[in-house]
Design goal:
Length: 73
């Protein structure tokens, strides 16, 4: 996948409980602002709660649908 700034993504092979918005695209990595997608995850917070920005390998990402709970999407 070749993500662009503002696109929503999730990690390949993981449940879709978290997704993120691409905030920067570099040569070999992208920065993703991850946040919760589900309404409630015990101990993690409500949907839309930010869980951090992380450098990610674009090959490990896949497109995700926009989340109605998140102000970032």
């Amino acid at each position: 996948m070749k993500p662009s700034v503002g696109s929503t993504v999730r990690r390949n092979g993981r449940p879709p409980s978290e997704h993120g918005v691409v905030t920067e695209v570099g040569k070999d990595t992208v920065i993703v602002d991850w946040h919760l997608k589900q309404d409630e995850i015990p101990g993690r917070g409500r949907a839309g709660t930010r869980v951090g920005k992380v450098y990610e390998d674009p090959a490990m990402l896949m497109p995700d649908t926009r989340c109605p709970h998140c102000e970032l999407c």
